Amino acid sequence: MSLLSVRDLTVKFAMRDQTVTALDQISFDLGKGERLGIVGESGAGKSITGFSLMNLLSRPGFIDSGSIQFEGEEIAGLPDRKMRSIRGNRMAMIFQDPMVTLNPVLTIGQQMVETLQAHRRLSRADAEQIAIMKLREVYIPSPEERLAQYPHELSGGMRQRIIIAMALLLEPQLIIADEPTTALDVTIQADIMELLLELCTSNMVGLILITHDLGVVSQMTERTLVMYAGRIIEAGKTREIINDPQHPYTQGLINALPQQTLPGHRLKQIPGNMPGLAAIPTGCAFNPRCPYAVDHCRSTRPETVSYASVEVACHEVNRLHNTVLEDESA
């Protein structure tokens, strides 16, 4: 049985004059201890996916249809009271900015102890010992002293380590990390990602890593979902997607990586922008930006098919693949 099974999940937002679709029938599975990456540009639906799984959508957003099963239990539409026993306990989320997650008027110790006591029958002394142990696991120096400090007294990297420690407090089976290093200096990002990988691997915790950075995904995950305009347009083993991307959008993301451009040359980019939810094109949503688009792409939405060991939603995947082969043999 999968740790997490998502089927045909559709999320909509009820605006003043219309209802728009943010997630359009997405489906995927996550095994116990498996690491899954979700990548795409801003507006692709990555973070909405994470919020939906945690049942943290707020109005005007709502789950319109579909299923989310966690350890065999249906949690889509679960009442908030019941969801609270799962959220933070069996599922945890790491957000982009630790200063948004941490309460600025409470000490680190107060926040960690309250989290533990909300889900476990523990004395304050026992909760503090568990908190200290978790801070040591994320290599926080002098953890006893950190319990008495406030978030603003710590560096960005230290705060993010504390967020990871808090996510692991109750030993969840699943962690959803939404751009966990965005607010950090480049020099600290690699350390945080390495720490997260180490902790998830050693504790057999399932990980969903939400990011726009395919370079990070290639180092951290076993499987990858590529999202565009609320749909999964390519899915498969991370190594297969990185080495042999099938969808033109995935190819564009990989070509845009800095290491794909010679020093002194202009960085490559995908022309145009992600469409807004109220203006998603007919047919394939990527067609206005796709160099391979034909009339069929502009009129009919592509179905997801198995191709070259991945699942891909593209009408022209055969022609695109043949074109690449011809270029390589030339």
TrEMBL record:
One of its GO terms (cellular component) is plasma membrane. One of its GO terms (molecular function) is ATP binding. This is Oligopeptide transport ATP-binding protein OppD. InterPro entries: AAA+_ATPase (IPR003593), ABC_Ni/Peptide_Import (IPR050388), ABC_transporter-like_ATP-bd (IPR003439), ABC_transporter-like_CS (IPR017871), Oligopep_ABC_C (IPR013563), P-loop_NTPase (IPR027417). Belongs to the ABC transporter superfamily. It is found in: Cell inner membrane. The gene is oppD. Its main location: membrane. PANTHER family: DIPEPTIDE TRANSPORT ATP-BINDING PROTEIN DPPD (PTHR43297:SF2), OLIGOPEPTIDE TRANSPORT ATP-BINDING PROTEIN APPD (PTHR43297). Residues 6-254 form the ABC transporter domain. It is a peripheral membrane protein. It comes from the Bacteria. Keywords: ATP-binding, Cell membrane, Membrane, Nucleotide-binding, Transport. One of its GO terms (biological process) is transmembrane transport. It comes from Pelagimonas phthalicica. Pfam families: ABC_tran (PF00005), oligo_HPY (PF08352).
